[in-house]
Amino acid sequence: MLSLEESYINAVETALAGTVRVHVPGPSHHHCCSNLRGMGSGIVMDDQGHILTNAHVVMEASDLMVTLPDGRSVDVKVIGLDNETDIAVVKVDADIRPLQFADSDALRLGQPVLAIVNPLGPPSGPMVTSGVVSSLQRRLPFGPNAGLEVIQTDAAINPGSIGGPIVDLRGRVVAVTTALIPFAAAIGFAIPANMALKVARQIIADGRVERPWLGIVGMELDRRIAYHFGLHRRDGIFITEVVEGGPVAAVGLRPGDVIVTMDGRSVQEMQDLKEALSGKDCGNEMKMEVERYGKQMDVYVTLGTRPF
User: Whole-prediction pTM value?
Assistant: First the structure.
């Protein structure tokens, strides 16, 4: 059986073999802030040369390079990105070894993890930091991806490791580093591997991510709105607009209706609505409990595809 020390060393060596640097060619950037475009790490996904990284790393960077574990720098093609989850996939024409991904749903609080950077560029070489999973059910508290489901780790994160892997002690990817809180060295956030892989595979297949859509504009119901519109309820999602030809319009819902539950789950905030939709695919049917003029009714809505 491996000693703890050997486990750490083996995990680092395994992870480094499939971690790359994603960067804009030219002089190195000043490493001063958390979300630098055009600089970060990437994770080799498969033996076709697909590399998973952060959307904000590749976004708006017209000229990208990838530095491989053996030090070679190669041109890269951007396959696609998804701003909502901060996941991007790029592709290189090179023989590189993919990393294994673990089931991130099996992560445990306090589990040891390693954050990998390979490399910051010669002569800096690879870097690794260690820590534990500090929180499993966080939502990113700031920035353009605020509300994104993330795990939190106290493994020190630096700008060079953004887009790179958080690995377990077997060297398997459990999460993708997405952000750090500047000036708070012990707080870093990472996208769970299961979500990152699901998004990345859809990007590879379709070039984009298709999301389920109801076709409404709504707001959280409160006493003031309820009083103004003469509603009996004091909670739920108040429909202010129904998109013509959309899924909800097709089942006869209209402005003024209040969504109370979706598939049996109470929806009191817009976040509840997002979460109810998050596990669904376009074309799935959802049962919605709706109130209209104080009367409850059940409707079955077939989810559409959110337009871009």
Answer: 0.78
